[in-house]
Amino acid sequence: MTGLSIRVPHTRSDRVVAAALALVGVRFRPHGRDPRFGLDCVGLAGYALRAGGYRGPVPDDYGLRHGDAARARAIIDALDVIDGIGGPGEMLLCVSAPGQLHLAISIPGGLVHADALLRRVVARPGTAPWPVLGRWRLEEE
To answer: In angstroms, rounded to a whole number, what is the distance separating the alpha carbons of residues 51 and 91?
Structure first.
């Protein structure tokens, strides 16, 4: 043995975090759903949740740009997710600017999101810099 330790993601939340972190550096693309071509915040959240075992639909007719928080919450509440508890591997619904909603994935010590200004998926330390309207997670197996 060489003394190396490899942490294998065991829980659904661990797998969501691992997938989100693996996407850091992927280019930003509006309505992007495939990391080979680029992702937006919905594509990032969908890809990370699928890695955690989510098998439902990933919305493509969303209204995040119009800031309709009630509509966004209704879409998310209809998915196979449960309310978050403030831990890693959760999907966050944030208000990133007036009239602009945004999704991110919580990770230990920060979050991962598709940054339209930086034109790529990034990890940022600390809490979300925007108001968080809701948190959702996959139910653990």
So the answer is: 13
